[in-house]
Specification:
238 residues, Rossmann fold, 8 strands, globular, hydrolase activity, AB_hydrolase_fold, Dienelactone_hydrolase-like
Length: 238
């Protein structure tokens, strides 16, 4: 990995309720487009920080905001113990999606104005973050958005008409949290949308790209990540 620099930054919430932190990873030299990395239910953990660092090594300014800060700042969990899963689901159940999108919008504004940013901003999210990446496409001015196995997108398809910039979805065919009916609804709602591109991974379960996760599938993860990298290169660097 090329030399990168990292820091924790503070972002003001749009509703004036306080500040929240974000992990920021910057490329070795020069400016670059920005990518907002949107957390799973485990908070801004080592896996998400590593993703930011990899994007920075590829020439992007990558930032991962703490979206659970309104409940508990600094959540950093793994998927390795039952106790952590229980806490993660409790945080997920208490999460305000609308406020989360407001905080992502604040993050986009922050990183777009950062001295190392070219002004182009994309977003990529996983699980809960996959839903939020879809809503980032419908509710913010992010330039390109990618959703990995987003949970609950089928319930927000009435917002699809608001998508005006490129969106990519990676769908796990055997997703334990997004059943076949939900997947069919997502396809029905987005397949004909000019800005949307959907990819299916028929044998993959939820979180198939989470390294060291229970359902990690290297071939599918590599394919999805390569598609995402090409997508961002086209829409953020081009």
């Amino acid at each position: 990995m090329s030399q990168i620099t990292t820091e924790t930054v503070t972002i003001a919430a749009k509703d004036g309720s306080g500040d929240f932190s974000a992990y920021l990873s910057k490329p070795e030299s020069g400016n670059g487009p920005a990518i907002v990395v949107i957390q799973e239910i485990f908070g801004v953990n080592a896996g998400l920080r590593t993703m930011c660092d990899r994007w920075a090594a590829a020439g992007y300014v990558a930032i991962c905001p703490d979206l659970f800060w309104r409940q508990e700042p600094g959540v950093d969990l793994t998927d390795q113990t039952e106790e952590e899963w229980q806490k993660a689901f409790a945080l997920y159940n208490g999460f305000d999606v609308d406020k989360g999108i407001e905080d992502i919008a604040a993050t986009i504004d922050f990183i777009r104005g950062h001295g190392r940013s070219t002004g182009k901003v994309g977003a990529v999210g996983y699980c809960l973050g996959g839903l939020l990446a879809y809503l980032t496409a419908t509710r913010t001015d992010a330039d390109a958005n990618v959703s990995y196995y987003g949970v609950g997108i089928q319930d927000k398809l009435d917002e699809a008409a608001k998508i005006t910039r490129p969106l990519m979805l990676h769908i796990a065919g055997k997703d334990e949290f997004v059943d076949a009916a939900a997947q069919a609804a997502i396809h029905d709602g987005l397949d004909g949308h000019a800005q949307s591109t959907l990819y299916d991974y028929p044998e993959a379960d939820h979180a198939f790209s989470r390294i060291n996760g229970q359902h990690y599938r290297e071939d599918d993860a590599t394919r999805a990540n390569e598609r995402t990298a090409a997508f961002f290169a086209d829409h953020l660097k081009g």
